[in-house]
Structures are given as structure tokens and as C-alpha cells.
């Protein structure tokens, strides 16, 4: 791994790379991490192996939960990075291994039907130790499939 | 598919088979359905592809959520079958395609470390249209990894 | 009580009156029901008796939960009325006594400080038997104090 | 106020007194704090002013949520006190004003009918900064009325 740059941009790139390349389950699902301007979202194409409901061709509720949890955790960590001054980023990086989800609620609004699914998140409670995020899953037509609310420990 | 027997036992076998054989995502995860006396549980062996935390060898939170959601939904449906008289089972079977999770909360108690994981569930609110279940995930040593609470629509 | 008019407007007035005049706990809290155009919200003035945190002058978390649950339930019922044709309103009215909250999540974002608090809600999952709502609590300055998510049984 | 004794017992008494005497909303509800051996529970007698459902004589969902939130927060704080050595209690006491609920889920299992209601809690995830509790509400006959799950910030 190339040397980590202890700037906000450097740490953000490092975190996204960890999620993308070092979390095998995200690769199993086929998750792509798409950054645009100042935001990040997940995208996943439909794949028959993600089918949940045995009688309809829709996403397994666990796939939805996985995408919402992943974007929620990533959003929480990136927000923490953005509110940390360069001088304190080293300390934040040492806490990365103990960051994680405390709890999450998923509300399933519609059957998970579509060709492509997009997960987005935003922080609704910021803090140095705990953050709370709201997450959403839509399909490529903009149908709103699920809401998530997650509480994340920032180490 | 062999003909469905419209008895409680026949419908229970039918539902378990649907979850086991017709939900590809459960097969992707490697879920086994274990019935014992009157109860059912899920088991899943550790597999590197299920890794979540990039810096530790622990289950992705989405795998935990998937297992809890699956055992919760299965427990809710089987409970509905058990409280349905044989004469009404045909009507229940027609509702199977529209059964599904309304919402779920997952509480992550410990890092998901282990060689094998076991998911169990119980109904805490019974109803003909909606059921609420509590679910638990333990590893093979009995460490309690996560709690779940899910609300399921029964058609 | 005057005779109930079995029109959407008549049933809406009836339901709001039930919440306002026949739920003593709402009166104990000092809740006012404010209708405007097609929407309804709750308002409550600060009162020392609602103090929760012993060391700060802020709302008890239970007051926040009460307001969110009340507006969530009311919003769910009014939405059900609005999607019911006049000919079926009598049947809906007979189900009112068994409508109620299945589950609710509250996210506390900021200390509940203010002179006046406003609770609003919207339906995110409609259904004939179950509805899911998102609720918000703000103070008179627009500070966002809490989010709620509730699942309601419609009889 | 008498001088605070910086022993575990002293701080526990101090915290319970704060909840009992300095949270007016608990007094408005009529909450009693009952300690027995090493545990604490809340008790509340039925009172018409706590009525929620306008068409049945049952507890307002907000009362249930208030009781669960209160016992959850108290249980989380007392657990933190018990795992803190005497030398660090002063620092914990300074954090008391910023302790509070991050999020809570309530599952309503049965109508809140009874002469007396008892709320109990237990810690399911311990931590120095965040604790997660499970709470239960029963009536005097032992009927299980509601479950709660709450995440608490410990300063």
C-alpha cells in the first residue's frame, strides 16, 4: 500500500480504498463506489444471485441492509475526517479499526426491483465519538426502495 | 416441484424449501437451515468472502443483518402457519408472495468473529397480518454477536 | 357527540377530535392540533413540568417520543382516510379502536431546548393494513431536535 | 444538596436522586424508583390522565416510551458507574449533564392495560462512551406490554 497522506483528501482516499478493496463482502455483492464532487454513493447492478423473495425477482432484504449499512458507515467516517484538522488525522486513522455500526434500522418501502440500485447517505447527528446517519436506496428509475437509520461508533 | 400438501407440516416443509432452494442470496452466503424438534435455526460457516471490517477478520454487518432478517421472516411465516387451521392453509399459501419485512433493527453487540454463526428467532407479537420477531446471532462458542427486531407483513 | 358524517372530511374531523379531546395524555402535555390546508401538525409550548434532563432545562426524551408517536399515528390514520372511498369509510371507522403503533424508532439529534415545539409527519409506506411514517420535531427557531420512524397498524 | 460521596454507592444514590427529584416529567407521570438488591425498576400506577387510545382505557404510547427511555438511561448510567473505579468517579460525574439517549426503538406488544406498570432494563452492550440497553414494560399481572432497545451516550 502506498504511504498514507495525512491530509483530509489523503485520508478520504485511504478510507474509500479500504471499503472498496479490503472488504471482500462488498466485492461479492458487486458494489461500486462512485464519488462526485463532495459526495459518495454506492451502485450495484441487478444480479440473480442477490435474489431474496423466492417468488418474485427482487433483492434480498439483507442486500438492501448491507448497502445501507455500508454507505452509512462510510458517510459517518468521511464526515468525521472532514471535521478533523490535519494535525489530528493521525489519531483518527489509529481509531479506524474500532469504528463500526452500533445499531441500524431499515424500513423497506417497496419491493427491490430494478436494473441498478443506488445507495446514498447523510449525517444527521455529528459527533466526535458517535454519528447518526440516514440512508436511502433507490433503483435506476428513482423508485425509493428503502430508508435506513444507523448509529456509528467513531472509535 | 412435488405437489404441496395443505397440512401444517406440508406447508412448513414447503416454506423452508423455498427459503433454502429458491433464494439464491441465501445460497451465496452459505446458509444452512437446521430444524430440530419444533424449532428452526440458520447456520453459516466462516468464509473469507463474508469479511466486512477491512482491518479485522470479522463478518460484514450486512451478513449479520441478512441472517437476522432471514430467520426473522422465516420464523414469522412458520408461526403464522402453525396458528392456521388446515382449511385456511390454501389461502395463506396464496399470500406467501407478498409476505416480507416491513422494518428491522439490528444491534451489533460484538465483533462478528468465529468459525460458525447461528441465527435464531422467536415471535414476540403474533397477528394474522403483522408479526414482530426478536432474533439473535451467536458464534460457535456462544458469544452473542447481534440482536435483531423485525416487523413482518404476513400478506 | 354530534353524528359522524361518513365523508372523508367528516371522518378526518372526527379523528382529530378524538385525538384532541379523548386522549387525556395529550391534554396533560399541552398538545395543540393545528390544521393548515391539507396538513396537520402538533404544537406544544415549553413547560417546566416537561423537563427531562435533571441538569439542563430540556425536554424529557419521553415527551419527544410522545409527540412523535402521536403525530405519526394521526398522520397514518388520516392518510388511510384520504385513500378510502366514501362507501368504505364506515368500515374504516369500525377499525379505529384497534389502530395503533406497532413499533417506533426515535433519533435524538439535539437537546430539546426552545419555547415552542412543532411535530410533523409524513407517510413513507402506504398500505391498507400497515403504514410507515417519518416524523420530525423542531423548535420555534427551526432547530431539528428529533427524527422518528413509526410503523402503524390500521386495524 | 448534601455533599456527593465519590464512591460507587454514593454516585449511584446521587444519580437515582437526580432522576427522581430533578426530572419533573417523571413526577408528572407518577414514576416511583424501586431499588432491590443490585437492581432498579420503575413503577407507575394506572392514572386516567395517562390514557392514550381514545376508544379504550389504555396507556398512551408516549407513556410507554417515556418509561422505557427513563429506565434505559438510568440502567446505562448505573452500569457505567459500577465499572468505574473510585478514582475516576469524579470525572464520570462531570460528564453526567451530557449523557443522554442517542436513539430508541419501542415495540408495542399488547395494549397497555393494567393497574400498575413495571419497567426494567439491562445493558446488552457496555462501553465507556456508548451503552446499549434492552428494556421491558409489564403490568402487575406480568403481561408483557412493550420491549425497548436504546443506545445511550455516556458523555
From TrEMBL, chains A, B, C, D:
Checking Gene3D superfamilies in the record gives: Hotdog Thioesterase (3.10.129.10)
Residue span, Thioesterase domain: 57-143
InterPro entries linked to this entry? ACOT13, HotDog_dom_sf, PAAI_dom, Thioestr_dom
Q: Report keywords, A-Z.
A: Hydrolase
The residue range of the signal peptide is none
Q: Per its UniProt record, what SUPFAM superfamilies does this chain match?
A: Thioesterase/thiol ester dehydrase-isomerase
User: Which family is annotated?
Assistant: Belongs to the thioesterase PaaI family.
Stated name of the protein? Thioesterase family protein
Amino acid at each position: 500500500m502506498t504511504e498514507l497522506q495525512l491530509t483530509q483528501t489523503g485520508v478520504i482516499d485511504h478510507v474509500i480504498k479500504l471499503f472498496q478493496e479490503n472488504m471482500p463482502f462488498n466485492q461479492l455483492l458487486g458494489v461500486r463506489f462512485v464519488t462526485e464532487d463532495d459526495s459518495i454513493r454506492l451502485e450495484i447492478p441487478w444480479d440473480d444471485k442477490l435474489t431474496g423473495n423466492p417468488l418474485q425477482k427482487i433483492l434480498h432484504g439483507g442486500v438492501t441492509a448491507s448497502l445501507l449499512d455500508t454507505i452509512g458507515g462510510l458517510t459517518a467516517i468521511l464526515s468525521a475526517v472532514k471535521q478533523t484538522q490535519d494535525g489530528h488525522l493521525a489519531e483518527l486513522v489509529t481509531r479506524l479499526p474500532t469504528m463500526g455500526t452500533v445499531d441500524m434500522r431499515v424500513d423497506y418501502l417497496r419491493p427491490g426491483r430494478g436494473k441498478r440500485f443506488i445507495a446514498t447517505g447523510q449525517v444527521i447527528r455529528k459527533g466526535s465519538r458517535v454519528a447518526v446517519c440516514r440512508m436511502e436506496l433507490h433503483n435506476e428509475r428513482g423508485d425509493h426502495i428503502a430508508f435506513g437509520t444507523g448509529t456509528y461508533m467513531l472509535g
